[in-house]
Amino acid sequence: MVLEAIRYQLGSLHILNQLKLPHQTEYDEIKTSQDGWHAIKDMRTRGAPAIAIVAALSLAVELQNTKLSSNAEEVAAFITEKLDYLVTSRPTAVNLADAARKLKKIVDTASKQDVKDGESIVKAYCDSAAQMLISDVSDNQGIGKYGAEWIEKQAGSGKVSVLTHCNTGSLATAGYGTALGVIRSLHNNGTLQRAFCTETRPYNQGSRLTAFELVHDNIPATLITDSMASALLRLKGASERIAAIVVGADRVAANGDTANKIGTYQLAITARYHGVKFLVAAPRTTIDLETKSGADITIEERPGKEMTFMQGPRFDGVDVDVRNSETVSIAAKGIDVWNPAFDVTPAELIDGIITEIGVVEKGRDGLFDLTLAMEALNEGVKPSTIGGF
Ligand SMILES: CSC[C@H]1O[C@H](OP(=O)(O)O)[C@H](O)[C@@H]1O
């Protein structure tokens, strides 16, 4: 079975309900941008790239199934209004806002054509939204290639083990994944010893989603709790074996500061302490040159109940009984809760940013300059010469 978080065809969109994984595979139909907004807000679909794609396609199916005005300007205004609404679903990942900006520009260009009507505006929008599914997989395969090459080069000979956090695979994107794409490429290259994945409390993207993907792909993998990461890196010989910690990103600021799933920052600290490389894997759609540093990134806070309760199938002593799911309390009633969904890792703790067209390293000044690096990468400068600006 191919892991498909998003199923789209003209007029129809279904998303894999990730609150039900790994024990139940259920697809929810998304008919409107409102359905899309709620699916993203509820985290039935999640992952920075996937959020952007589901939002864009939720509006595409709404447009395809709605009788719209023949007036191009009215349709363009409707699309703009819906995109502005969709962007409010989750604030930290930049991919959604970036996609909305690009789609608005495409609609604006279409509405300036000599021959235009409502239908031509809808077609321009839907074609661009559908292209996001294809481009994202291609981007992720590039991230996998360059990330694997960088780690293999750093490690020299032999196989490498890597640790990853949260879920950045086919369930967070249109397919293949970002940090998990690097793991897939190492595995396909025959250079992966083992992948370690953290549980990633409180949503458990790691134990429920990344572990699900690694088992599905028959990749040698070990699940650890978030609190075990430093002990793992300290294991005698582990730092030789664990070549890198590779994580995804929700927003990379112009100076390289990176917002990612809560718990990422402390992984970067322990990686630096143990002399293990720390890498961020992100397509260029996650790099936000308008945000100068991590201090300017809005961190989403989620409801406390997502930490104090857990939901899952009953365990009958032998196996899970998926027909009987239940919610259990795992915290004292009345305790206050702080539940930020993300944290910011400062650029100084990041050794490289893996993009779909190359790995960005720091310049001789010890700083990332992603504005310059993106210009160079966009002009086709070879990845090996990135950095040192
Ligand atoms: C390639 S997914 C990037 C990013 O998104 C995840 O957040 P969430 O599960 O809350 O949507 C996580 O931070 C991943 O690293």
Structure write-up:
With 389 residues, the chain is an alpha/beta fold. Helix content is 39%, strand content 20%. It has helices at residues 33-41, 48-64, 72-86, 94-110, 118-155, 179-189, 205-216, 229-234, 238-241, 264-274, 305-308, 370-378; strands at residues 6-9, 12-16, 27-29, 160-164, 192-198, 221-224, 242-247, 251-253, 258-261, 277-281, 287-288, 309-315, 320-329, 342-345, 352-355, 358-360. The strands form four sheets. A seven-stranded mixed β-sheet has the order 6-5-4-7-10-15-16, sandwiched between helices. Strands 11-8-9-14 form a four-stranded mixed β-sheet, sandwiched between helices. Strands 1-2-3 form a three-stranded antiparallel β-sheet, covered by helices on one side. Strand 1 and strand 2 (12-16) form a beta hairpin. The longest helix has 38 residues, at 118-155. The mean pLDDT is 94. Bound molecules: ligand LNRAV4D5. The ligand CSC[C@H]1O[C@H](OP(=O)(O)O)[C@H](O)[C@@H]1O binds next to helix 2 and strand 9.
